[in-house]
Design goal:
Elements: E1 20-22, E2 44-46, H1 52-67
Length: about 70
């Protein structure tokens, strides 16, 4: 079982306290995106000024939610 589909009771304590996280300008790649999915309270994630690939992955990830909104 991966951490991404693990029951919430097995998540590490740091999965809950973050509601905003700014990690811009760090040369991050698209490999950093999946671990953020365990941050249950995260509402704002700033990944600006990282790899262009990160920006593309984030845009694709968010598009699935926007396209599911009622019209």
């Amino acid at each position: 079982m991966s951490i991404h589909n693990a029951p919430s009771r097995t998540l590490p304590p740091l999965a809950y306290p973050f509601d905003r996280l700014s990690i811009g300008k760090n040369r991050l790649t698209d490999e950093v995106i999946p671990p953020f999915t365990i941050l249950k309270e995260l509402r704002v994630l700033n990944l600006s000024f990282n790899s262009a690939k990160v920006q593309c992955v984030v845009a694709q990830f968010l598009y699935q939610f926007v396209s599911a909104l009622p019209k």
